[in-house]
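Assemble and predict.
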Amino acid sequence: MQDSADSHDVVVVGAGFAGLYAVQHVRSLGFSVQGFEAGSDVGGTWYWNRYPGARCDVESVDYSYSFSEELQQEFEWTERFAGQPEILRYMQHVATRFDLYRSIQFDARVVKARYDEQGRRWQVELESGAMCSARFLVLATGPLSVPLVPEVAGMSTFEGSVYQTSQWPKTEVDFTGQRVAVIGTGSSGIQSIPVIAEQCDQLYVFQRTANFSIPAQNSALTREALDQIKANYPERRRLAREDRIGTPYRYRPYGVMEVDEQERARAFEEAWQRGGTHFTKSFTDIVRNEDSNKYAVDFVHRKIKAIIGDPELADALLPKDHPLGSKRICADTNYYQTYLRDNVTLIDLQRTPLVQLYDTGIRTTTTDYPIDSLVLATGFDALTGSFLAINITGPRHQTLRDTWRGGPRTYLGLAVAGYPNLFLLSGPGSPSVLANMVATAEQQVDWLGNLLTHLRQHHLTTAEADPTAQDQWVEHVNELASHTLFMKADSWYLGANVPGKPRVFMPYVGGLHAYRTLCDDIAASDYRGFSFTG
Ligand code: N01
């Protein structure tokens, strides 16, 4: 690498919720900041995932920044769970309101970062070959941003259009009059299938594994409801901060087995009516106790059977291979009802596996399905993919890819031993995807801002995680996960969806509230577990 042309206190990579707030906050503390974003605008996940039906599964009034009272009072969310266009508009509004655009370069993909031991700076290289340097490198590249494209035989021979949900075109895709195939029934598939079905002539859904989906129960936010939320925002945010998943709701503070059958039925029905991710919060032990989980599974199975009617079709849609909540639960609008439409066919790949694509269609072991368009809702190289997509080299010429060969190792999900002044947001080992991502972003960025200020006040140059503290943290994260049902699913939390990826449970399951307390405690004890150089 050549000498840098540009130098900054902090480089932030990524302009999603975490990166955007990092630029705003660190700049407000008086550090010079340069943001880089591969997309042409802010948004991160919400910039790329423009597929039909994309919307958040945490209520928008909570899935939004709390750092500015003016911001939360002025923005008018129109739905309980906002769709992608509205979330993107919100993020653009934030970037404009806080004058963040001037600090971020767009269409600028960071491809390399090398720590220069002598200068104690990160040398950062873009895809264009442009370079800059920074004392601190903050990777806000997102836990779900590297798409996973399946290797289906004959893909190159297919003459129709191919769309990836997480790389959806900016211009409208019109499926009118078309025969469409969707591969994948995770959250992206489950959200897009009902919307595509309404537009196209014929939809074929290729399902390898049935997933649990709870109706989101989305609705428009009335003026009255929004005013009430805004009037109580401080309390709402306080409750969210003290919560395991960073939302303000509290339900029954006991386990499924501690109540009788009637109460259980009432609780599950209430949770179903509240919708989406609220379901796993209905009791405290749904993802901890196998017997409790079975009650929840039975309830959802009964609901699916009641909606579908046809026993054979219902059976194919029943998730049976993993406990409820051990894979990310999906939140849908009319997902199961969509299979009652005449123009929708479910293909169960467990019975008739996919063989190949051919010029005009897709083939299973029994049938050829002629199609015009193929939609891949096949997921991501989650939690580590976006960090490893950057070629990161530490001071001893070691690469992050080699350091993590056996699986990711971090301290607090924020720092990596051997890589001074490198900070990950929503990294493996932090609550990340198991909590409200906006709340986790604010917590981590605030904490990081305090650390950078601490360094400045004490005339320190570098902060680096101690290997022992990191080992203990990794052990703690694994220990916590081992007491949950998360280990019983082949999920992307464990890297199970990527062939050859080390099977390590990556997120911290202790909850955002516990994580926040721990991080604050570490800061209060002079950043226990970090070493500093002056
Ligand atoms: O990806 P996924 P996603 N042949 O990995 C199938 C967040 N998110 O993009 O389970 C056939 O969950 C795969 O099958 P299987 C949310 O955290 C949130 O849907 O591996 N099928 C699976 O069905 C979510 O969890 C929202 O057997 C293949 C699907 O593709 C995360 O993003 C909306 C295949 C992938 O499901 C990821 O969700 C969207 C193959 N070769 C996303 N390869 C909100 O609601 C893969 N599959 C906020």
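The mean pLDDT is 97.
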